[in-house]
Structure formats: structure tokens, C-alpha cells
Amino acid sequence: MSVLLREGFEISDDDLEYPGMAMRAVLHQPSPRGSRTELGWPGLRCAALTECDGDVVPFVRVGTEPVLIQGDPSYADAVLADGHDFLFQVDEEGWPVAGELADMVESYLWGYGSVYFYGTLRDDGTVHEVVAGFIDF
Predict the structure, then answer these.
(1) Where are the alpha helices (DSSP H) in 8-130?
(2) Using CA atoms, how far apart are residues 9 and 13, in angstroms rounded to an integer?
(3) Number of helices (H) and strands (E), helices first, in the chain?
(4) In angstroms, how far apart are the furthest CA atoms of the chain?
């Protein structure tokens, strides 16, 4: 899956909720590993999903329910009404800025927020469609 963000996006813009999100999720087959490792984001090239303890803010949180920053579940009303289920969230506070990325990340795009992704599942449990639900900060 690739996530695309509208050019010129600012956190103060008003396209932060489904269906008018400034963000799109596109499902595709996995990309093969390339030989040009210098083109990847430092620190993310070797990232993998692992379990985190309560002291670590994960960059990607997978689950059955979102962990909301503002605690307002009404943001999800429109995406749930269209039949999508919560899949995962990307929490900017968990962005791996240590080491090589520390100099590259000067400001937080979502204002220390999270983006929540929802999807439509097939009968066999595979994901048919992924949509960005809302940004919470």
C-alpha cells in the first residue's frame, strides 16, 4: 500500500476527514527490493512490525479499534457508515527520528497527530480497499 498526500497540504487545511481527505491509500503488489538503498528513507529501510510495550509510541498501530488522541469517535462516523472497518493508524509521535532521521525531520506534518485507516474486507479476510478516515491531533 502507498499513501499519497495532496501537494501543498497543511495541517490547518479543512480536508482532514473522510470522504474529502487530502490523503489517499492505494493498494498494490509489494515492490521488489531495489539495489539502490540510498534512495530509501534512512531508519525505515529495515523497519518491521513488532509488539510495543506501554512506554513506546508505535509508528504504526494495528488493531480492531483506534487509539484516539482527542477521544472523539464521531470523526469515524462517515467512514463507518460506508461499511469500512478500522485497520490501523499511523502515529506521527512514533516516527523513528532517532539517528539518521533526526536532522531530516524538523517539524511534524500532522502536529503530533495520527492518521486512521479503514478498509473493506473480502469474505476471506483480505483487504479489498483502504481509505484514510481522518487525522486526529
Answers:
(1) 77-81
(2) 7
(3) 1, 6
(4) 45
Query: SS3 of 26, please?
Result: strand
Neighbours of 60 (CB within 10 A): 13
* Burial tier of 93 (Cβ tally within 10 Å: 0-12, 13-18, 19+): middle
Dist CA 55 CA 21 (whole Å): 31
Single-letter amino acid code for the residue at 98: A
| Cβ neighbours of residue 99 closer than 8 Å, sequence gap 6 or more | 42, 43
Place of cell 487530502: 22
**pTM of the prediction?**
0.82
Q: Is the pLDDT of residue 105 over 90?
A: no
Distance in angstroms (rounded) separating the CA atoms of residues 76 and 16: 11
